[in-house]
Amino acid sequence: MPSYDLISIGSGPAGEKAALVAAKFGRRAAIVELAARPGGAMVNTGTVASKALRETALVASAMRRRPIPGYDAVVPQGLSMQRFMARRTLVQMEEHDRIEGSLETAGVDIIRGRGEIVDAHTVAVVREDGTRELITTEYILVATGSSPARAKHVDFLHPAVVDADGILELETMPRSLVIVGAGVIGSEYASIFGELGVDVTLVEPRSTLMRFLDGEIREILQRGMEDVGIRLLFGRGVARVEGLADGRARTTLADGETLESDCVLWSLGRNGNSRGLGLEAVGVVPDERGNIKVDAHYRTTCHSVFAAGDVIGFPALASTSMEQGRIAACHMFGIPFLTRLADTVPMGIYTIPAIGSVGLTEEEALAGGREIVVGRGHYRGNARGRMLGDDRGLLKAVFDRRTRALLGVSVVGEDATELVHFGQLAIASGHGIQHLVETCFNYPSLTELYKAAAFDALAELAAPAAQRAA
To answer: Fewest Cβ atoms nearer than 10 Å: which of 220, 425, 461, 465?
Structure first.
């Protein structure tokens, strides 16, 4: 019976990084993976796949925002999705090779099959041919990710009705698309297909999209989506989604209105992939959505079983999943490398325009009783922003009014997911207005927006109280 120090069930970002940390610090690690290639949803159906498609859509977006006289870049109707997404396939292959190369170099074994927990120190590997092998281990990491939630009143058997795992497997580019659910995934795909000229309707049962965003930033995103023709329907529930005989689909809203389209993307929630893992054998009970409860070290109620990544729920980001896997491995073996998740975790939302956020939003700061001052840097007032044709982009910085320290940054516009990292470092180091006004930035660069926001906050602080009240 083979024996390891760590077995990770799943080769997504959490499983990969945990195994690498363990192996690089002298432990024998293995990953049990059912899929043919590693990477989990991050590579195969989620982060890498959708973002590669987004980069292609940005070509069409750039030509619209920065037009070349006499040249019209229009995506042909009925284009093969596989041809259009050739770049996605290449990027996925390269990422698969990177992961496999890293694991091989570190000495991590990849064991093909479905992993099942037999007891606190034993994992069964069930192979495609039905054979079963037992492997012992000191620790087990559950890193099986999540899957799109599927409602019973949605006809997923029809080819025109898909979830986030199936949207990129369509044979042709749809001319019309209804997306149900305006969370991160739904909003990202709405933006991507809207930029490609697809007639997109985004349906959200709640009053707005992504309520965790700064309200001002969210409004700019919504206007940008409407500019490319995306129809936003908020506060509208869905009674039924059904496939039609002509190959299209019909979405019936709760109020009786019907929407017919070439395709429907159902994007309301995700569930942790915890079923069939044998967790009951070690007394671990997932919640109703399949998410596993863990402590600050990512240990479950069983001392030798840890869990990390999407299977534990929020925030379910590839970036945080990687860190969670590393932290879990460090706590398993007492490795003084990484002990906790950073206090300032950035969020990147790859809509068009993109959004980056870190720290407190204005609403969160006020709700927490903070006295704040807000500074804004507008893309239209930035030379680089004008070159990019982004006349609505905004960097919004929230500062403590008394100490002038930076509390949070929200950005909407070109390169927002990159820009936010400078704010992350400033928050972590305790810097604020004075540091930003004294820092010399490249010209022209979007990073100058931080200086503009700092000067804007200084002007607000210097304004008479009567003027601020007005």
So the answer is: 465
Which structure tokens are listed for 125?
A: 């590997």
198, two tokens? 């697809």
Could you tell me the fold of the domain covering 3-148+271-333? FAD/NAD(P)-binding domain (3.50.50)
What CA–CA distance (Å, rounded) separates 230 from 165?
A: 22
| DSSP string over 385-454 | HHHTT-SS-EEEEEEETTT-BEEEEEEESTTHHHHHHHHHHHHHHT-BHHHHHH----SS-TTHHHHHHH
pLDDT digits (tens, 9 = 90+) for 274-333: 999 999 999 999 999 999 999 999 999 999 999 999 999 988 889 999 999 999 999 999
Q: Is 407 exposed, middle or buried (0-12, 13-18, 19+ CB in 10 A)?
A: buried
State mean pLDDT over 174-201: 94
Question: Exposed (0-12), middle (13-18) or buried (19+): which is 370, by Cβ within 10 Å?
Answer: middle
Closest to 145 measured CA to CA, from 321, 285, 286: 321
Enumerate the domain spans of the chain: 3-148+271-333, 161-268, 347-462
Q: Which residue has the higher pLDDT, 217 or 128?
A: 217
Could you tell me the fold of the domain covering 161-268? FAD/NAD(P)-binding domain (3.50.50)
